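User: Here's a chain of 187 residues. Predict its fold as tokens.
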Amino acid sequence: MDFQTKIPTIAILGPALVAFALVALARYRRDASGWSGGPLVVRAVTALYAAAVASLTVFPLWIYSGMYRNQAEWYTQIQPIPLLMADITMIPNVAMFLPLGFLLPLLRPRITLRRTVLVSAMASLSIEALQMLQYIAFTNGRAVDINDLIANTLGGLLGYTILRTAQRATAPRTALERFTPSARTTA
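Assistant: Prediction complete.
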């Protein structure tokens, strides 16, 4: 049977964001630690950021069958050699993960550079693995590239570095403390 169908982004991410909003509202009403004021804003921005990354990397989800199906073998969609095909297209991947490196320390003020880089790498690896699984299951044409993993991880590292550098100055540090969960519990 020959067909192609599209699962729109809003069909998946819309309910996920509504679920987050309901959880956030319930925790806000119960006055749960880290779920009001600035920390709630950081959590909401993080949820929107995660939805944006998913919409860029996973959705919309195209499903193909029959003559519409990509005939290339799944393993041909993998670029395993680092920096072999590196070019300016890596910049958007760096930019896409900058907010992750910036937001993680706001969510978890004691997180280290090493953990931030690890979380960035694991999030990127998860995206690449999901794209590969999508290709295998639905032949949606997404490629898996080690350069994306490198660029995304570098973006997380840069985001962390930017935040920690900004926190060295008194004015930015004071402003940013309003958005960390620990600021609420000590105030």
